Amino acid sequence: MKLCLSIFDYTFTNYYWQYRAAVSIDGVKRPVEIYNCRDRTRVRQDGVVVSFEPDGAGEFICSFF
User: pTM for the full model?
Assistant: First the structure.
C-alpha cells in the first residue's frame, strides 16, 4: 500500500487528538477528513463516522503524529 499525505492540520487548543488530512492511497485521492485518534474513527465529508481500517491511513496518521 502506498500512502501519500497531502494536507495536514491539527489544533493545539481544543482537540489535540483530532487531525484534518487529505490522503491518497494507492493513487486514489480522498477528500479532507477528520481523523480522531482517541476514538479511532474518521469523519467523512458527508458527516458519516467510520472506524479506522487495520493498517490504514488513520492508523498511520495517529501513530506518526
Answer: 0.81
